[in-house]
Design goal:
Blueprint lengths: L64 E2 L19 H18 L4 H42 L2 E3 L7 H4 L17 E3 H5 L6 H29 L8 H8 L10 H16 L7 H16 L3 H4 L14 H21 L23 H31 L6 H16 L3 H4 L2 H9 L33 H24 L9 H25 L19 H17 L3 H11 L5 H18 L4 H9 L16 H4 L12 E2 L3 E2 H10 L4 E5 L7 E6 H14 L8 E3 L15 E2 L4 E2 L4 E3 L4 H11 L3 E6 L2 E7 H11 L11
Parallel strand pairs: 1-9, 4-6, 8-9, 11-12
Antiparallel strand pairs: 2-3, 5-8, 6-7, 7-10, 12-13
Helix pairs in contact: 2-7, 2-8, 2-10, 5-7, 5-12, 6-20, 7-8, 11-15, 11-16, 11-17, 11-19, 11-20, 12-15, 14-16, 15-16, 16-17, 17-19, 18-19
């Protein structure tokens, strides 16, 4: 077979990938519409001579083979770092539904397959819920145990954490309830005593060594086996849900390594959380389990139903998956309190209307902190990307871990795990609390029907705790900036909540003492009488945590729901809402982007933010390519090009697709064909169809014209062409075009003028234009 002139690009070479957004880098040929020639019809009807049966056609010409009569492996799939075609995927799914519905009426077996197909979505949600809940419970239990391992070990069994080790001990005291003979610190095991400077140094040294070991294992596993397992994962998940493909990001290796290294990273004592990475873990579970079901495995849009649209059936299935995950988590009982919430609170006194003033102040603090954190963290991550710092991820993690451990150990509030710190800050002091924060001066307490204690003067240990918390606040604010974004799994929920909880507790204790010593002031008169429980510092900590988390993530409604889920405090929705809205307003005034949107822009992901308004009065013709000084538009004609000419066009360009037109002169649009589908179909034709050579003609028409005698067999590729590409006119306003791209998830949009092809707009063109309008570098949106 004569394969001369066949382009070097094959199906396998496509794995290197071309940028999806460099779809057609045309730049503006000026089209001459003054021609008076008749425009040929889109599909010439050549009558019955256009197709033949078995054997040779007339004049001895070999018969035409429609390659799409049978599915060609690879056609309709996508390369890495490309955007899916939502319209095509939804069309494929509708065709599949129609085929199943039609066949279900023909036989009982087909009806059973139809019922199985309808039930598969619910079965998938059941499996995702079970798998996600089990992994979440296992991660929490393991992280708790390994965190305690830095301070000591249980003699009854090394697999017990500190709390479980002393659970059934009868030798604990009220003042030192966390000490029991079964639990030994490293100093007790090595030097025989837990008192004295040498024992303190030994515990200090072991704490730092364990932290370094855990962090080294975490970053080494990520670097060696799954580089995508680092970070939070939420920016990438948002981009993937919008239709972008990152192969391996939701794969089994990423899931396995992220689960293991998340436990190690949290246990190392770094200022990070596990809630964000757990979103990545759950998405990995969903993606892996999707491959068990054909309709999800073969359709990229079906795996992303919660992105551009959220149909009612997806809402119910999400609810069902959450129910299964909650049931699984409750069965595991990772928190040891038979509750599903991480920070269960039970405050004994209601909040007063005038307390909204300090709650709003906490919201202002949260907004300022959120804006500061985003700017500082993005500046540090950009420095990591553009300097030699990014070449040494292991060294960076070890240095930050060493600094964190050395500074955290002397302060009891930074030495404990961040979740334990938040839980203590949320706590409402009672008679049985032995916490340093609850060591108030005893006053005469009258009998009351409620469990609330009256406001009391702070003791010496309370003031000591406040100083330690102030130092912990500064430490957490600074160290979190450099920790988030390192090459280990790192979430931001818990560190942000810790900063806000510390600030809230400090303000709460201050308000409590102010109310105790100055209850006759105007702001306290009428609702805060002597001997009453007026101020609840734990509530202030909870509000502060909400405010700071809102300032960093810019969440509002969902954040209030999350805080309710974490604490179970339904009656404190109004303070949480007030702090959340205030923090968002303040943070938006200082910078419009949340932390995840900022990281999406930093990494150059092709993500169109739905919240970002486009208010500029530009037209499609201002954004489309080709531009006036650019080469002409690269197109394929529907019946005038040979295999060699198409292969040369593919070899000479890096575009991901080509418009199909009637002819170069008319520029009448017929459809759009993907580069990948072209390459695969031509290669498949050379292997399966005898006689296909470089001179063979390629047809995208419905009927094929008669071929000259002894000419090579043609290729009919109409089946791989999109016959209804989305088009706009050149005078369409860009705000409408941007909305179309956002709501339909388009890869590209063709621009026409009086029905003739004029140019093309890709998602990258949209992002570049929006960056240019915002006075940013348009090239900053390139995927890195």
């Amino acid at each position: 077979m004569d394969n001369a002139g066949y382009c070097s690009e094959s199906f396998n070479s496509l794995q290197s990938g071309t940028s999806d957004e460099d779809m057609v880098e045309i730049a503006g040929a000026t089209l001459d519409f003054s021609s008076t020639d008749d425009v040929p019809p889109l599909d010439r009807d050549y009558g019955s001579g256009g197709s033949y049966g078995a054997g040779d056609g007339p004049n001895g010409v070999p018969k035409l083979m429609d390659l799409l009569d049978e599915p060609v492996p690879g056609v309709g799939t996508y390369e890495d770092f490309n955007t899916i075609d939502w319209v095509r995927e939804k069309s494929k799914d509708r065709d599949r539904h129609r085929e199943i519905a039609t066949k279900s009426k023909e036989s009982t077996w087909a009806l059973m397959k139809s019922i199985s197909d309808a039930f598969s979505g619910w079965l998938l949600m059941l499996l995702v819920g079970l798998m996600s809940g089990a992994l979440a419970g296992g991660i929490d239990i393991s992280a708790h145990w390994m965190t305690d391992l830095k301070e000591g070990v249980c003699l009854n069994g090394f697999w017990f954490n500190h709390e479980h080790c002393c659970w059934n001990s009868n030798e604990t005291t009220f003042q030192e309830r966390d000490k029991c003979p079964q639990w030994k610190s490293w100093a007790e095991l090595i030097v025989g005593t837990n008192n004295g400077p040498f024992a303190y140094i030994m515990n200090y040294l072991m704490y730092v060594c364990w932290a370094l070991l855990f962090s080294f294992l975490a970053v080494s596993l990520v670097r060696a086996f799954a580089p995508y397992a680092c970070g939070s994962g939420i920016p990438e998940i948002k981009t993937i849900l919008s239709g972008f493909i990152i192969r391996g990001y939701l794969g089994k290796w990423t899931l396995m390594i992220k689960t293991i290294t998340l436990v190690l990273a949290v246990s190392s004592g770094l200022s990070l959380g596990k809630e964000g990475p757990l979103v990545h873990v759950a998405c990995c579970c969903g993606n892996i389990l999707c491959h068990l079901f054909t309709k999800y495995r073969r359709n990229e849009a079906k795996r992303r139903e919660v992105s551009y649209y959220f149909p009612l059936k997806t809402l119910w299935r999400s609810f069902f998956a959450a129910l299964v995950a909650a049931f699984t988590l409750r069965s595991i009982n990772p928190f040891g309190n038979s509750r599903l919430v991480l920070f269960y609170v039970e405050f004994h006194s209601p909040w007063h209307l005038l307390e909204l003033i300090p709650f709003v102040l906490l919201g202002i603090f949260g907004g300022i902190w959120g804006a500061f954190f985003i700017r500082a963290n993005i500046a540090w991550c950009r420095r990591r990307k553009t300097t030699r710092l990014g070449h040494y991820p292991v060294l960076e993690v070890l240095v930050v871990t060493a600094v964190t451990a050395l500074l955290a150990f002397p302060n009891s509030y930074t030495r404990m795990s961040t979740s334990e710190l938040i839980s203590e800050l949320f706590n409402d002091c009672g008679l049985l609390d032995s916490s340093q924060l609850c060591n108030y001066t005893n006053v005469s307490i009258t009998k009351s029907t409620s469990d609330a204690l009256p406001d009391r003067p702070a003791g010496h240990e309370v003031y000591t705790a406040l100083w330690q918390l102030s130092l912990a606040l500064v430490f957490k604010m600074l160290i979190t900036v450099v920790t988030f974004g390192m090459k280990v799994p790192s979430g931001l929920f818990i560190p942000s909540m810790a900063v806000g909880a510390i600030a809230g507790r400090l303000l709460g204790v201050g308000m409590e003492q102010l109310a105790y010593y100055h209850h006759d002031w105007v702001i306290f008169r009428g609702w805060c009488s002597p001997g009453a429980d007026c101020i609840t510092p734990g509530l202030y900590a909870m509000v502060g945590a909400t405010a700071c988390l809102g300032g960093v993530t810019r969440m509002t409604v969902s954040l209030v729901v999350i805080m309710f889920e974490l604490t179970g405090g339904l009656e404190y929705i109004v303070p949480l809402m007030a702090a959340t809205m205030t923090s968002k307003w303040v943070a938006d005034a200082l910078g419009r982007e949340g932390i995840y949107e900022a990281h999406i822009r930093l990494n150059g992901y092709p993500f169109l933010e739905s919240k970002e308004e486009f208010s500029h009065k530009t037209l499609a013709m201002d954004v489309m390519r080709p531009r006036r000084s650019d080469p002409p538009l690269s197109v394929i004609t529907q019946d005038g090009m040979s295999v060699e000419e198409v292969e040369s066009l593919i070899a000479e360009t890096s575009y991901s697709g080509f418009p199909v037109v009637v002819s170069h002169e008319s520029q009448r649009l017929v459809g759009f064909v993907q580069r990948r589908d072209l390459v695969i179909s031509i290669e498949n034709a050379r292997q399966r169809q005898e006689g296909v050579v470089s001179a063979s003609r390629i047809f995208f028409t419905e009927y094929t014209p008669p071929q000259p005698p002894n000419s090579p067999p043609p290729l009919k590729l109409r089946g791989i062409m999109d016959l209804s590409p989305f088009t706009v006119t050149d005078h369409t306003a860009m705000d409408i075009v941007v909305d179309i791209f956002r709501k339909l998830g388009l890869r590209q949009c063709l621009v026409t003028h009086n029905g003739r092809l004029l140019g093309i707009i890709t998602k990258k063109d949209i992002l570049k234009h929006m960056a240019q309008m915002a006075n940013r570098d348009p090239d900053s949106i390139l995927f890195n």
